[in-house]
User: Which sequence fits this backbone?
């Protein structure tokens, strides 16, 4: 009995002693992110590499769910004064973060820590999206753009040429119809991130305004423009397709990724970030192509999505040193090239593009698609990006209205008018807060 | 009434203190904070607050969207309450009989109570899924109608009602079973002697004698479906398609935590708070007193 007690005490003491030992040795840096599954593993690869490269800091990457969950968790943590050091916020949260007063601008952090980063080397599309007054407020991390994916195996079964990706909406209609009528795939055409792919990017790609004040870049946006000719045209087309079973709506946010990844959909619009996952997991032949253009509109450019890393205020100076070192590591040429080649996200610096093997894009045609799309398009005030106050809410509003439209509860015009009305209210409320 | 059984005058206060502390910390304080936030327009990070008086309430009470969420809440709650009570009563009466394997049936039926509501939601999501759900597959064999809840509001609503009822069924059965055990055998036997068969027995004896519990469960199910089904909605439909499954508590969440409009969300929780107080008063006042049999 006595021995048992004594040994229990010993075990307890050992536990108590062992616990803090691990955390004493290194300064812990917490990073909340939204990368799950395959991409989550790649994030762990990065932190493992960084943690092994030095012994002062330990980056702890924690997946807090999807993009919205991470932002919500970050805000709650900040309000209760226990924020993580870094948080990954999707592009939609940019204005919210910029106005928050809760962040330590990344350019400032690097300057304070005396770490030199060649900001000019970042690709202009990426840099302009996240800069204010020419300075980057957050660290670009995973940048993507929507492209078209198609299932070559299904194309072949339907008697279509699998070597040619559909280029226009007419091409998609023809191919999807053939695929569905021949039973080559369950779904003809679908989209992930419906608002991002069909509204935000369609406006940019066809050089039409999404909101006033240059989509919120020249001044705070106060009015959405999506109920114009283009928005209505796109949704009228898709509603017809939905009724003819050419198009299938697959839900909000990322839920449309699934049918594209597992081959249920013959054609789909989704983020470049799927390239990495599909290369490793898909059991069918697939290819990629540019976003489809609508006839009669000028050529714009597709806009980037994805996320950046924001640094929270209120931590200790020595911890910020670790944060800065980690961000420097992320921005390094080698790291950028690795991240791009393994995930499908863009390499963010010119140096990293140059560092890719010469035949990289020839060998990886699907990685080239997005890169070619975004570097060949025309960057105009309509296609440099979209920056809206409380954009998260606006995107949710748009997707809810798209559901009303596709199910026939509202006409495209009516649904978009309602989205604009509610969205403008949201913009007004946001503007009144930050007057 | 006896005045006090405590000799020490402080002891009773000490005894209730833990409960009071918990209630203050986890109920009164947040409730007060909601009341306070409801009259402000608050920035997402809480660094800016603009006093707006009753604007948030006016905003809500003049928006058709809010009334739709109220409407959806009642449809949803009544759906859950009625399916829970009817199915649970049926099951409870069945497992109250002397049959072989009784213990197995009883625990099998009570099991669902141990499950978190979102899990139930996910189970039904898989069963109902338009592309890979077994039920959707079965339905597609017998009818050409597409039960696609990603687009059809009523299907989505039925789906979440199913999921919520399933999660709460065990709770209902437990109460009904307990109530059934309290029905005196003599009453049942007397009725049998009078020649009452199974159905008649249920209608004239069992059902009326269960009515206090039925009323209690009605209130509890309403409270459950109004306030605790958030997880199911969040896991399955996220309030969609459109806003057809956006019930009041989910709307409060979406406005507060997705749309980051804390003031508006706080105003909604104040309204919800009034509602739950009303339901509780209803229960205290009428349960056991006004249910006759």
Assistant:
């Amino acid at each position: 009995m006595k021995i048992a007690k004594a040994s229990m005490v010993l075990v307890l003491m050992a536990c108590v002693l062992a616990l803090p030992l691990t955390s004493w040795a290194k300064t812990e840096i917490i990073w909340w992110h939204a990368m799950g599954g395959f991409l989550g593993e790649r994030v762990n690869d990065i932190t493992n590499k960084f943690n092994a490269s030095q012994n002062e800091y330990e980056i702890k990457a924690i997946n807090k769910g999807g993009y919205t969950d991470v932002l919500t968790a970050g805000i709650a943590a900040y309000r209760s004064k226990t924020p993580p050091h870094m948080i990954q916020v999707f592009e939609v949260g940019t204005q919210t973060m910029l106005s928050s007063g809760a962040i330590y601008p990344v350019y400032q952090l690097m300057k304070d820590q005396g770490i030199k980063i060649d900001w000019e080397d970042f690709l202009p599309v990426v840099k302009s999206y996240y800069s204010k007054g020419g300075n980057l407020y957050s660290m670009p991390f995973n940048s993507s753009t929507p492209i078209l994916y198609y299932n070559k195996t299904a194309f072949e079964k339907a008697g279509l040429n699998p070597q040619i990706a559909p280029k226009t909406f007419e091409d998609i209609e023809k191919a999807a119809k053939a695929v569905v009528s021949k039973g080559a795939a369950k779904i003809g055409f679908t989209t992930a991130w419906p608002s991002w792919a069909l509204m935000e990017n369609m406006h940019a790609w066809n050089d039409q305004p999404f909101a006033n004040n240059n989509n919120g870049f020249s001044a705070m946006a106060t009015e959405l423009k999506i109920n114009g000719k283009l928005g209505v045209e796109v949704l009228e087309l898709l509603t017809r397709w939905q009724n003819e079973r050419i198009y299938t709506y697959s839900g909000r946010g990322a839920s449309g990724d699934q049918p594209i990844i597992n081959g249920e959909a013959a054609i789909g619009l989704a983020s470049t970030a799927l390239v990495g996952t599909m290369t490793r997991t898909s059991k069918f032949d697939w290819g990629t192509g540019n976003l489809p253009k609508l006839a009669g509109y000028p050529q714009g450019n597709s806009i980037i999505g994805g996320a950046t890393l924001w640094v929270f205020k209120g931590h200790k100076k020595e911890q910020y040193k670790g944060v800065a070192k980690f961000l420097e590591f992320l921005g390094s040429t080698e790291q950028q090239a690795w991240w791009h080649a393994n995930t499908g996200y863009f390499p963010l610096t010119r140096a990293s593009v140059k560092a890719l093997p010469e035949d990289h894009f020839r060998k990886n045609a699907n990685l080239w698609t997005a890169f070619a799309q975004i570097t060949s398009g025309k960057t105009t005030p309509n296609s440099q990006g979209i920056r809206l106050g409380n954009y998260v809410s606006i995107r949710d509003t748009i997707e809810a209205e798209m559901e009303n439209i596709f199910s026939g509860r509202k006409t495209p015009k009516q649904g978009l008018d309602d989205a604009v009305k509610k969205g403008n209210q949201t913009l007004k409320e946001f503007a009144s807060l930050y007057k | 009434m006896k005045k006090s059984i405590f000799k020490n005058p402080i002891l009773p206060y000490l005894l209730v203190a833990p409960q009071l502390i918990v209630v203050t910390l986890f109920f009164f304080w947040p409730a007060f904070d909601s009341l306070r936030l409801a009259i402000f327009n608050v920035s997402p990070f809480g660094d800016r607050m603009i006093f707006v008086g009753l604007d948030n309430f006016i905003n809500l009470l003049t928006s058709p969207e809010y009334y739709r969420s109220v409407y959806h809440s009642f449809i949803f709650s009544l759906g859950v309450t009625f399916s829970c009570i009817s199915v649970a009563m049926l099951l409870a009466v069945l497992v109250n009989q002397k049959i072989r394997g009784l213990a197995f049936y009883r625990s099998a039926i009570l099991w669902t109570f141990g499950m978190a509501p979102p899990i139930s939601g996910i189970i039904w999501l898989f069963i109902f899924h338009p592309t890979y759900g077994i039920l959707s597959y079965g339905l597609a064999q017998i009818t050409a109608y597409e039960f696609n809840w990603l687009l059809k509001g009523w299907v989505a609503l039925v789906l979440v009602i199913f999921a919520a009822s399933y999660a709460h069924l065990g709770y209902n059965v437990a109460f009904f079973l307990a109530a059934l055990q309290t029905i005196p055998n003599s009453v049942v036997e007397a009725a049998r002697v009078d020649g009452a068969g199974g159905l008649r027995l249920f209608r004239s004896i069992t059902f009326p004698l269960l009515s206090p519990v039925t009323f209690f469960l009605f209130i509890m199910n309403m409270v459950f479906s109004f306030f605790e089904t958030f997880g199911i909605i969040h896991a399955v439909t996220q309030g969609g398609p459109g806003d057809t499954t956006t019930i009041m508590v989910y709307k409060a969440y979406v406005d507060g935590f997705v749309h980051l409009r804390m003031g508006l969300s706080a105003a909604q929780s104040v309204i919800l708070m009034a509602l739950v107080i009303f339901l509780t008063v209803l229960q205290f006042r009428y349960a056991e007193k006004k249910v006759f049999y």
Q: What stands out?
A: Chain A touches chain B through 37 residues (CB under 8 Å). The longest strand of chain A covers residues 27-33. DSSP finds 20 helices and eleven strands in chain A. Chain A has two domains: 25-144+305-356, 146-302+381-433.
